[in-house]
Design goal:
With 79 residues, this protein is an all-alpha fold. The protein contains 4 helices and no strands.
Length: 79
């Protein structure tokens, strides 16, 4: 095991055993500043299929606007 792999292993083990939320958030912030995930998220086949079906529904006009959903919620909350 090389030096980098050893360091990663120690960090991974440490993170798995720390329950301090503030500390973990700080570690997450440091990692996010250094690591940039790929531009395109990797999606499972079923996720891609759901996105494609959603696009088709939008093209067919099968959707609600935010205003329509907010009105539905107001009616439900007042029942």
């Amino acid at each position: 095991m090389g030096k980098i792999e050893f360091i990663k292993s120690q960090i991974h083990e440490g993170v798995e055993n720390i329950d301090d939320e503030d500390f973990l958030l700080a570690v997450q912030e440091v990692i996010q500043k250094k690591y940039l995930p790929p531009d395109k998220p990797l999606l499972a086949k079923w996720q891609r299929q759901r996105i494609e079906e959603s696009k088709k529904q939008i093209e067919r006009g099968e959707y609600l606007t935010n205003e329509e959903v907010e009105e539905m919620m107001r009616r439900w909350l007042n029942e």
